[in-house]
Amino acid sequence: MMNLYHSTQTNRAVPRMRTVHEAAEELRRMDEGTAVTEYHIRQLAINNIIPRVKAGKKYLINLDALIAYLSEPHEEVD
Predict the structure, then answer these.
(1) In the sheet that 52-55 helps form, which strands lie side by side, from edge to edge?
(2) 3-state secondary structure 14-39
(3) pTM across the whole model
(4) Whole-angstrom Cα distance, residue 77 to residue 49?
């Protein structure tokens, strides 16, 4: 029987998943003057702009995907 918790691919990085609150805190630690709010991160997740996983009532955000999204210039959509 195959063990589902043991992978033969050990080079695969584990995604840094955070709640919306934790992701906002991480951004503040990286940049004390950030203007990115929890509300904005939550809206990005709800609108499928950044990947997220729903865990109970909370969304888990891939922190690296959030940082990558914020690092790229985007046009504002009305």
Answers:
(1) 17-19, 58-62, 52-55
(2) CCCEEEHHHHHHHHHHHCCCCCCCHH
(3) 0.75
(4) 12
